[in-house]
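Section 4.2 – Deliverable D4.2 (structural model, holo form)

The reporting period included a commitment to supply a predicted holo structure for the target in complex with protoporphyrin IX containing FE. Inputs used:
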Amino acid sequence: MTAGTHEPGSRECAPAPRLPGRHLPWLGPLPAFHRDPVALLRAARERVGNAFSFPLLGQDVVFVCGPEAHAEVFEADEAVLSPREAYRFMKPVFGPGIGYDAATPEEMDAQIAPIRPALGSRNLDAYARVMEAEARAQVACWPAAGEIDLLAELNRMSVAIATRCLIGEEFHRRMGPELPRLYHELESGVRLAGMLSPRLPIPAFRRRDRARAAIAEAIGEVIAERRCRRPGDEPAGLPGSASAGLPGCVSGAVREQDMLAVLLAARTEDGRPLPDPVVTGILIGMIFAGQHTSAVLAAWTGVLLMRHPQYVPRLRAEQEEVWPPGSRLGTGALHRMELLDSCVREAERLHPPLILLMRKALRDTAIRGHRVPAGSLVMISPAVAHRMPEVFRDPDRFDPSRYGAGRCEHRRPYGLIGFGGGKHRCIGLAFAYLQVKAAWSVLLREVDLWPAESGYAPDYSTFVPAPKAPCTVRYRKRSAEPS
Ligand code: HEM
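Output (structure tokens):
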């Protein structure tokens, strides 16, 4: 059964129960939701069940949980449950008419379509080399032992990786030192207040707009240069850079095959190149979708491994086996790292970077027999769903073996939804997993890490909850160990 198949008003179609408790008019449970949405929704699910409703900032929210409900939401007709209408607050990031602000679902699909090959297996092998090079370069900057802010380091790494693989070397060279701050301001400008209006005159939104303008201007200049360039005019890659491995690369000179190159080569249905603002908006949208989320997933992977150090010797043995010292890191080796893969998957399950996914009901409909009136915001939470004991045995426990033969808990359709599901499932999943695994392959090999604090609680003040800052860890380079 999919959303929309119930006749609203029929006897089987009752409204979802109201979230119990006294809530503020119009604001609803906003203070508790703002403090810790996952705790609020988990507690409510335990008391009320897998579907309930509540007001939030003047909207009626219908929250649903469980693989069957997820299936109905992810597979719903977009004329009934619309992601574009739910995420319109992203318009200042993507730009007018782009991504979630496209005029129709078909137009949004057409904008995303050209990117898919750029994230496909042919390019991933070259991206893996950029990922390895950036991870090694990052570690090389650290003294032999000391303390680092793990999230900040992984974030810098993922800024460089996303920029080089998606936008290109010239942009990275031109903007490099500026980028972590600009991306941070872009990302920090997407917050709950945007559901009211993403144009509210608040400092975070002003910083977001300034950051977007600076990034867009620099991308615009790179686009102009590339459009003017004659074949054979390719710039040399960074000296000693991993970009020499990007596809299309000939003897030290890079013929760009980053996502920008793919978008510049793309043609509309009537054979015209994509307009520059569309190319710019898609690139900024991809950076937004994939850069910080990947860094956060990598940081949670590290926190979990430090909390469960008994896995580290096995992970190192796996590294030795599939990625022999002296060889290059490629997708083949990364795919064979099964234990590391399961550890990253546990990070996705226990700490999904996106904790809330949304759809706007454009018509009266029903989910799992609960009436969903037109205008409601339908909400799903990977963070709540991943702790369902009906789906994941002993769900609060870090247990990479749950994905192994005989259990395969991730195979249950719409159970593990850290990257969404159905038609709008994340197109960057393979890229993100590759990046997190490449980062941890290098880190496991090169450093020993210990927690420097007991906390590492999620920071729910941001849209993509990372471990609270500073995420301090102690390390020692393995090359510095007395033999
Ligand atoms: C750990 C990293 C990432 C996480 C956790 C993540 C998560 C998600 C989720 C949950 C969705 C579905 C949203 C929904 O249905 O409401 C999604 C969609 C999407 N993601 Fe990711 N993502 C990540 C990395 C990336 C990367 C690296 C890229 C691109 C380079 C990317 C591009 C996209 C795009 C374009 C969509 C929209 C797809 C569509 O609507 O058809 N993501 N992502």
